[in-house]
Amino acid sequence: MKTTMKTTIKATTAFTLAVSTLLLALGAPARATEHEHSHDHGKQGAAADAGAAVDEFVNAEIRAIDRDNAKLMLKHEAIRKFNMNGMTMGFRVADPKLIEALAVGDKVRFIPDRVNGQYVITKIEKLQ
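^ that's the sequence the OP posted. Answer follows.
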C-alpha cells in the first residue's frame, strides 16, 4: 500500500513538473490568458488609465529560466500597469543579455511591458 502511494506522489510530481516546463517552453503565461479579457477592473476615467501606464518595478522570484528562448517563469507581485494580481507566469525578455547572470530562486525586480500581445521584460535587476 505504501509503495502505491509513493508511486502516485512521484507520478503527480513528475506530471506537474512536465506541465510547468511545457508552459514555459511554449511561452504561455501560466494564468495571464485568464486575465486577458475585456471587462473593466474598476479603473475610473482617464486619470486611472494614465496612472496604469507608468512603468514601475515589480518584485518577483525566478521559478524557471529558458535561456535558449529568452524566457523567464516568475512568481510576481501585482502589476498595477496591467491591473493584474500577483501570480506565476512566463515572460519573454526583450534582450537575452538581461538574464545571463540570473539563476532560479533569485529575487528580482523588473519592468514589464506588452508587445504584440506578449508580456515582455524590458528591464530586470537582481535584488541583494
